[in-house]
Amino acid sequence: MAIRAFLLFLILFVSSTTFALYEDQVGLMDWHQQYIGKVKKTVFQTQKAGRKRVVVSTEENVIAALDLRHGEIFWRQVLGVNDVIDEIDITLGKYVVTLSSGGSILRAWNLPDGQMVWESFLLGSSPSRSLLLTPANFGADKDNAILVYGNGYLHAVSCIDGDILWKKDLAQKGINVHHLVHPEESGMLYALGVGDRSQFEAYVINVGNGKLLKHSSTEFPGGFSGDLSLSTSDKAVALDSSGSILVTISFVGGEIKFQEVHISDLLQGFSGVAVLLPSKLAGMVAVKINRSLLFVKVKDEGTLEVVDTVPHVEAVSDSLSFAEGQTAFGLIQQDGGKVHLTVKSSDDWKTHFLKESVEVDQQRGLVHKVFINNYIRTDRTYGFRALIVMEDHSLLLLQQGAVVWYREDGLASIIDVTTSELPVEKAGVSVAKVEHSLFEWLKGHLLKLKATLMLATPDDVAVVQRMRLQSAEKSKMTRDHNGFRKLLIVLTRAGKLFALHTGDGRIVWSRLLNALRKSETCESPRGLKLHPWQVPHHHALDENPSVLVVGTCGHNSDASGILSFVDAYRGEELNYFAPVHSITQIIPLPFTDSTEQRLHLIIDAEGYGHLYPRTLEAVGIFQKELGNIYWYSVDVNNNLLKGHVVKKNCKPEIADDYCFESSDLWSVIFPSDSEKIIATSTRKLSEVVHTQAKVVAEDVLYKYISKNVLFLATVTPKAIGDIGSVIPEDSWLFVYLVDTITGRVLHRMSHHGCQGPVHAVFSENWVVYHYFNLRAHRYEMSVVEIYDQSRADNKDVLKLVLGKHNLSAPVSSYSRPEVMTKSQSYFFTHTVKTIAVTSTAKGITSKQLLIGTIGDQVLALDKRFLDPRRTLNPTQAEKEEGIIPLTDSLPIMPQAYVTHALKVEGLKSIITIPAKLESTTLVFAHGVDLFFTRLAPSKTYDSLTEDFNYALLLLTIVALVIAIFVTWIWSERKELQEKWR
């Protein structure tokens, strides 16, 4: 009885302990980071008591309210990719008003929580710039109107409910409205613009009913260049077409008058071309001349007076009104890592409200924008804070001579991702710092013991969870035996590299690349791709890995290229080449030199290949494989698919010894009047396939595994537009599997009444693609599996034993393959943004599709649901094989969401990285947000879970040993008693 009671207590203890382990597991294997992107416009809300905030709009189409104390996000709304935010403002002290989509959509958001209050669609006749004006008062009866100009129309919209009060068509040929001006205590509105023939246009409109009171048009002989700068409510300043004359334009009552002043008369020794800054300065304009700013005051009579010339000004803010009739603006000067902030009075240039210097990390680059705001100090004087946007898209708040907080919002615009292994932990060297004292260590174990015994309070559970999240094992800067700890190297649109630790997502290092910064030789640099450059294996303790960053100096195909080589551990830019030849394609080759640098062939716009690294050893390795290097190109604009081969060195008069000529092997031209290319997909070069054979219902099929197979999708020309823009009878979707070595079409399939966009993923011998079925009014997902029939004779065991098989025979793409395909289609309820597939170290673990949904979540779908062999009534053999009965729709289970209840706002891409542990794959999803987690598609069959209770196991073993020992004693005693009878 004692043993039974003990075992019952043990079972209850195990069950209760297992149940109690789940509460503090959140965040152990995943992390989620929220960002907003590069800030474009801001509106401060600090007048009322309570939490101070700033509302921003960004280049990632995000509207967010940030806490001015800590920079945290109060609320955030992410608009669509094409719904670009043009203007933002605050009205009635409680609504955030946004104008987007080229002036077509006006929305009001609740300031405290960000919920949308109303939405208005403003139609127009012709594209134009977008303008938003929210005056403080229109009069007693129209004090709630918002003025919007967009698509050639001027609208007055109620800020209470979004109703359109009136609209006026201003779309005339060649007229471009630049400003809306509403003088205080006036019932007139001025719409100012410039025509095609350098005519200045002024519309005078009644703000109460929208009637046109007056329209004036005057031509300026010299023509205008750039934008108009509004200095006062009745005067504007513009530059002439030569950029050497400032023109003051007076439009009082609709009467237009011009006054010209040569910049050379204002500034002695002026030469070159001036640029008028768009900053709104009260009674003043700023003119950029080389690296200096010329501040010019506009007097009442329209004359101009130079106030000052300030050198090396990086950014100027708009004017800020505070107190009674006082206005100020801020300007930023920068000297290396030192940022100088000056807040000046718009009325008296000699008055400085603030002048201070702040040290800023030089890896943030130059200041791009500055926004200022005032506050009242404890001594009742006015202080100023500055919100600055840096070159790397980070956001900083400066106040009282220090950086109060910063946000790394460049991570909201990731272009490409690669990974790097962490360094090996050297024996006898402590690589992790001791973070806790002995008392804290004991305290932590006591709290864990309380949680195990279900005696912990919610506060204790929170402490245990925080300790687990900050555990040294998770965040160590060395490799682990399971391969979970890695560096995610990400390239952002700002040209900055970040190294993120997969353990907790922290930034290990960041580097603003010199090669991707604006310079005289490269006016508009942009990053393209990341590639592993050097991955040391044999001397991993002596050499650091490095990555290759590829970029161009523009968006044209013939733009000069940029190459940068960066140390993956320290973030140092080892070397860079800029500008070089144009770059249209980067081909990583399966060869390395003696230093384990991987060879890359970079194709330029003329079809020449350039070999890197540029060493004689690399050329020698490449020359041995000359004639075996194939590549293909897809020209979407010309509907052309081509195959190429590298043949010989370039002619000496063309290039150097590292240049190689290529020739066209084949081409596939899709007739433009019948098909248009919309999508392509290929296998990952690094993908591992465990076995070529697949057992199918007591039979064997051999997968057609080739890294040279391309999936290509085309549609009929009428189906190019958005979903629903064509009737099903006129819409066809065609898919092809093409061998890129020979150009042979291995498989072709058509879907009548279907339309793109098409998202596809290619893995092993199968491809899955997603599209829209117009007939069924639903999305579909189709799967195509391709098998090699030339090896079908290898099923005879005797032939295999005698060696009369072709499994070890070399495979050539030029031998005509005998292939067989199996396909199936299923309905799918979600719109898809991107698709990826899990990848593991040896390719043994079953596959899962990772689907980025329209709701910005990641859904894991077992590949077995997309098996083309599914039938309504599978046989017993098929059931044993794991075939799922056929259904017309793919199931979506709530537990299958990898992101759980979180959202990866603005989801762009999903990257999978194999861990050393075969059962596990690492998943990184990025958009405006970042999300990382670990997945085990076939469960963790090769390891114990992290929440496994080793202490309980030890306790169980000890208890069983004691129980065995006690029962052995009892048995011996009982046997002895029986012998005495």
Automatic annotation (TrEMBL):
<feature type="transmembrane region" description="Helical">
    <location>
        <begin position="948"/>
        <end position="971"/>
    </location>
</feature>
<dbReference type="Pfam" id="PF07774">
    <property type="entry name" value="EMC1_C"/>
</dbReference>
<dbReference type="InterPro" id="IPR026895">
    <property type="entry name" value="EMC1"/>
</dbReference>
<keyword id="KW-0472">Membrane</keyword>
<keyword id="KW-1133">Transmembrane helix</keyword>
<dbReference type="InterPro" id="IPR058545">
    <property type="entry name" value="Beta-prop_EMC1_1st"/>
</dbReference>
<comment type="similarity">
    <text>Belongs to the EMC1 family.</text>
</comment>
<keyword id="KW-0256">Endoplasmic reticulum</keyword>
<comment type="subunit">
    <text>Component of the ER membrane protein complex (EMC).</text>
</comment>
<dbReference type="InterPro" id="IPR011678">
    <property type="entry name" value="EMC1_C"/>
</dbReference>
<feature type="domain" description="EMC1 first beta-propeller">
    <location>
        <begin position="20"/>
        <end position="409"/>
    </location>
</feature>
<keyword id="KW-0732">Signal</keyword>
<dbReference type="GO" id="GO:0034975">
    <property type="term" value="P:protein folding in endoplasmic reticulum"/>
</dbReference>
<dbReference type="InterPro" id="IPR011047">
    <property type="entry name" value="Quinoprotein_ADH-like_sf"/>
</dbReference>
<dbReference type="Pfam" id="PF25293">
    <property type="entry name" value="Beta-prop_EMC1_N"/>
</dbReference>
<keyword id="KW-0325">Glycoprotein</keyword>
<feature type="signal peptide">
    <location>
        <begin position="1"/>
        <end position="20"/>
    </location>
</feature>
<feature type="domain" description="ER membrane protein complex subunit 1 C-terminal">
    <location>
        <begin position="763"/>
        <end position="980"/>
    </location>
</feature>
<dbReference type="InterPro" id="IPR015943">
    <property type="entry name" value="WD40/YVTN_repeat-like_dom_sf"/>
</dbReference>
<dbReference type="GO" id="GO:0072546">
    <property type="term" value="C:EMC complex"/>
</dbReference>
<keyword id="KW-0812">Transmembrane</keyword>
<protein>
    <recommendedName>
        <fullName>ER membrane protein complex subunit 1</fullName>
    </recommendedName>
</protein>
